[in-house]
Design a protein that fits this description.
There is one protein chain. By secondary structure, the chain is α/β, with parallel strands linked by helices. Among the domains are: about 70 residues, no CATH class; about 90 residues, Aconitase, Domain 2 (3-Layer(aba) Sandwich), CATH 3.40.1060; about 230 residues, Aconitase, domain 3 (2-Layer Sandwich); about 170 residues, Aconitase, domain 4; about 40 residues, no CATH class. Helices cover about 35% and strands about 15% of the residues. It has a seven-stranded mixed beta barrel with strand order 26-29-30-31-34-33-32. Helix 4 crosses helix 7, helix 16 packs parallel to helix 20 and helix 29 packs across helix 30. The two termini are about 30 Å apart.
């Protein structure tokens, strides 16, 4: 995919024009590039930089225009030191942007609203136009309403189009309105696998003949999966992605780079999923938030690209900005196997060799801030859960771990249940016996593993052996297979394995991010009722990357991440209290006990089928249909035309309010926060799922009540994720997760805390929903703040977690630490992120939620400045606490002064005309 703009700034002579050098591909094609080896002649340090930093350096060098990107930026990055203080910001201009539809629709809505503003001010609406290619992959909208039948895929897609017709019409308008905006329609696969298999082209060639590496940002935190093929890119919120689309660099602090040296080889019976769960556990303990992780060593070189992509995908779970794998022969083989043209592959290889970037670095070859080491032979079969992806459990310990957590207090990650209740039977109205620990959802889903034919073929082989042994899956378990792309179905069919998966209930139910994003669909009514009435702790087992509370299903409390073959195994076993290493999965038709070891496929068996998975012709034929044959359901969607969107009456799409009252000049100064009330006191690990749920909408919630009031019945609610184009729904959904705990509310007699989006309205302490309290505070002109603990905002790069916070009138979030993307999103929406210093916390300060809060910023805002938090208690006592302002860079200061990144960019675009 060629760039739509010149690769080199043309407004003036390029400051580094002498570093533009020619190179040739194997077939003699002449191209040019900005040479890092030439830059290294003056800055010898360049040759020792981590590969990922050199790719970022190339973009800074090539895009140097003396204005947004200056020679000083080039010199600063060229002279990066592994353990220096991180105070310098990098302006990174990416080659393209990738969106998924949950985040892409609100982003498109913001662009459409910007065009409304331009038109209202008498300017050409086309002034608002993406300056880099943008691809939106529709993958988050399909739900598992139907499962366990050959008709499941067709039925689920038809329901998807019925539910989302308004959103899809809006996307089609965007396709015709914006020149550089493309859509991959529903039914082709998960955005990250489509990106890996199809959208990523290796290198781009500008109109001026300059070749440059593929780089991107995406509006999904798992954009990092693309790091598996040597592409620098990561997830950002839609807010940052919008700015990147409109020509703004992605600004970030110069990072630490952690080298991860892999040695040895995986043992027999150990999967790539087991490896990634181990890596996730290790790196989360290493505290790599905001850092690049770069893999090196002989063990890394031995990993196939799907295994690398599986590890790269989980970077958000271990907290890193990226999990990067350099380009080597394995990358070239993957490009050939996935149908890239020989011309593209030649340019790809020639470019990376000319830059000195080809090959996996050996241990000690490059400078890293620190190094982590793992011997692959020490990895063991594992799962992770029941509430966080970094909580790895060895397979043989899952049963005992679940039993221990069942009775453990919630403060210790437990379920706070009486131990004697664990073995009891509870019967539904349809006479289905239910138990604590029962597996009710078993899903082969999510980009983490559906990029990896090794584990999917292993699942198929295990299913074949299970069927042949006479094992079955109980019919009440909601089984589903949601491949990352159509190619998966093709190779499972060619390998003869799909029929066996189907016999166990794992029919293809969708091509998209289903169970992992909260689109598992509902359970049977009587099953839900029995779970709720008896407070059962039932389980989901999925091959995904996220298992946060209430994400998979609001009534399933224990969620475990596992490899696809283990998903099938646990579906057969039916309960997570069964030890799969010692107890039988079930019995054969003739009464023999069948153990997991009896049906687990060998590496040799898996490898014998791998040739089915890498067929360039199949990949080319599949992705040619994106344009030529997207399907009748998509083709039949009708949309409006024109350059300015006319907003219809809709509960899915509404003109966003972020530009209401827009002025072409920003406010003169940013004011302190005075007399704020506390909206919530939260503990550690508050995720973006807690702040802005993606899954089901409860009829009793503020969002549910809003939809009912507008004539929409609960059966048609769809999900929060699908309604992200409508601010009235989403602001009501903010902090509405059924499992969130506001610690302002008093503890119950048993020490547990009330769950759900509630607060105490001050003064007086009236119990209200957070939304209702926010509306009262706004009406009274009272600002509000949130207090949190460690890792505030962990999880998906959900822009609505920041947008909803802003629309509720919350002026600041004060926490022990922030997840990288959410901190940036808060800044992007004009919300102050403030970080406690030293050992301070809201608990150590004795806050109850009744206090008044002032935030004194000073006359001018400086990045990462120390500012004053003033606490006024009910008795009139006043305490002052220094906190760190987490507006990290000078450009973020500008964003905040403009009220956020969107008005900042809009003012720039309108002023340019």
């Amino acid at each position: 995919m060629a760039a739509t703009k010149p690769a080199v700034p043309t407004s003036a002579a390029h400051p580094f024009a002498t570093l533009r050098k020619p190179f040739q591909t194997a077939s003699g094609r002449s191209l040019s590039f900005f040479s890092l080896p030439e830059l290294a002649c003056k800055h010898a340090n360049v040759n020792k930089l981590p590969v990922s930093l050199r790719i970022v350096l190339e973009a800074v060098l090539r895009q140097c225009d003396g204005q947004k990107v200056t020679p000083e930026h080039v010199f600063q990055l060229a002279n990066w030191q592994p353990n220096a203080a991180r105070v310098e910001e990098i302006p990174f201009v990416v080659a393209r942007v990738v969106l998924q539809d949950f985040t892409g629709v609100p982003l498109l809505a913001d662009l459409a609203a910007m065009r409304n503003v331009a038109a209202d001010q008498g300017q050409d609406p086309k002034r608002i136009e993406p300056l880099v290619p943008v691809d939106l992959v529709v993958d988050h909208s399909v739900m598992i309403d139907h499962y366990g039948s050959p008709q499941a895929l067709d039925l689920n897609m038809r329901i998807e189009f019925e539910r989302n017709a308004e959103r899809y019409r809006f996307m089609k308008w965007g396709m015709q309105a914006f020149d550089t905006f493309r859509v991959v329609p529903p039914g082709f696969g998960i955005v990250h696998q489509v990106n890996l298999e199809y959208l990523a082209r290796g290198v781009h060639v500008g109109a001026d003949g300059v070749a440059y590496p593929d780089t991107l940002v995406g509006t999904d935190s798992h954009t990092t999966m693309i790091n598996g093929i040597g592409v620098v890119g990561w997830g950002v919120g839609g807010i940052e992605a919008e700015a990147a689309m409109l020509g703004q660099p992605v600004y970030f602090l110069t990072p630490d780079v952690v080298g991860f040296e892999l040695t040895g080889q995986l043992r027999e019976g150990v999967t790539a999923t087991d490896l990634v769960l181990t890596v996730t556990e290790m790196l989360r303990k290493e505290k790599v938030v905001g850092k690049f992780v770069e893999f090196c060593g002989e063990g890394t070189a031995s990993l196939a690209i799907p295994d690398r992509a599986t590890i790269a995908n989980m970077a958000p779970e271990y907290g890193a900005t990226m999990g990067f794998f350099p380009v080597d022969e394995q990358t070239l083989a993957y490009f050939r196997g996935t149908g890239r043209t020989e011309e593209e592959i030649e340019a790809f290889e020639a470019y990376f060799r000319a830059q000195g970037l080809f090959g996996i670095p050996k241990a000690g070859e490059l400078h890293y801030s620190s190094t982590v080491r793992l011997d692959l032979s020490t990895v063991t079969p594992s799962v992770a859960g029941p509430k966080r992806p970094q909580d790895r459990i060895e397979l043989g310990q899952l049963a005992s771990t679940f039993q221990a957590l069942y009775a453990r207090p919630t403060a210790e990650n437990g379920f706070n249940q009486p131990a004697e209740k664990l073995g009891q039977t509870f019967t539904t109205t349809s006479d289905l016996p239910l138990h604590n620990g029962d597996v009710l959802i078993a899903a082969i889903t999510s980009c983490t593993n559906t990029s990896n034919p090794g584990v999917l073929l292993a699942a198929g082989l295990l299913a074949k052996k299970a069927v042949e042994a006479g094992l079955k899956v109980p019919q009440h378990i909601k089984t589903s297979l949601a491949p990352g792309s159509r190619i998966v179905t093709e190779y499972l069919t060619k390998a003869g394995l799909l029929p066996y998966l189907e016999q166990l209930g794992f029919h293809v139910a969708a091509y998209g991010c289903t169970t992992c994003i909260g689109n598992a669909g509902d359970l049977a009514t009587d099953v839900n009722a029995t779970i709720v009435e008896n407070d059962l702790v039932c389980a989901a087992v999925l091959s995904g990357n996220r298992n946060f509370e209430a994400r998979i299903h609001p009534n399933i409390k224990a969620n475990f991440l596992a490899s696809p073959p283990l998903v099938v195994a646990y579906a057969i076993a039916g309960n997570v209290t069964r030890d799969l290493l010692t107890e039988p999965l079930g019995q054969s038709d003739d009464g023999r006990a069948i153990h997991l070891r009896d049906i687990w496929p060998s590496s040799e068996e898996v490898n014998a089928l791998m040739h089915h998975a890498m067929n360039g012709d199949a990949f080319r034929a599949n992705y040619a249909q994106v344009r030529s044959n997207p399907g009748a359901l998509w083709s039949d969607i009708e949309s409006s035309s024109g350059q300015v969107y006319t907003w219809p009456e809709s509960s899915y799409i509404a003109r966003p309010p972020f530009f209401d009252g827009f002025q072409t000049t920003p406010p003169e100064r940013v004011h302190d926060v005075q007399g704020a009330r506390i909206m919530a006191l939260f503990g550690d690990s508050i995720t973006t799922d807690h702040i802005s749920p993606a899954g089901s909408i409860k009829p009793s919630s503020p969002a549910g009540q809003y939809l009912v009031a507008h004539g929409i019945q609960p059966v048609d609610f769809n999900s929060y994720g699908s309604r992200r184009g409508h601010h009235e729904v989403m602001m009501r959904g903010t902090f509405a997760n059924v499992r969130i705990k506001n610690l302002m509310l008093p503890a119950r007699d048993d020490g547990s805390r009330e769950e759900g989006g509630w607060t105490l309205f001050q003064p007086g302490g009236e119990r209200l929903t957070i939304y209702d309290a926010a509306m009262r505070y706004i009406a009274a002109g009272t600002p509000t703040v949130i207090f949190g603990g460690e890792e505030y905002g962990t999880g998906s790069s959900r822009d609505w977690a920041a947008k909803g916070t802003q629309l509720l009138g919350i002026k600041a979030v004060i926490a022990r630490s922030f997840e990288r993307i959410h901190r940036a999103n808060l800044v992007g929406m004009g919300v102050l992120p403030l970080q406690f210093m030293g050992k301070d916390s809201w608990q150590s300060l004795g806050l109850t939620g009744s206090e008044r809060i002032d935030i004194e910023l000073g006359a001018t805002i400086e990045p990462q400045a120390e500012v004053t938090l003033r606490i006024t208690r009910d008795n009139g006592q006043t305490d002052t606490v220094p906190v760190r302002l987490r507006i990290d860079t000078p450009i973020e200061v500008s964003y905040h002064q403009h009220g956020g990144i969107l008005p900042y960019v809009l003012r720039q675009l309108l002023a340019a005309g």
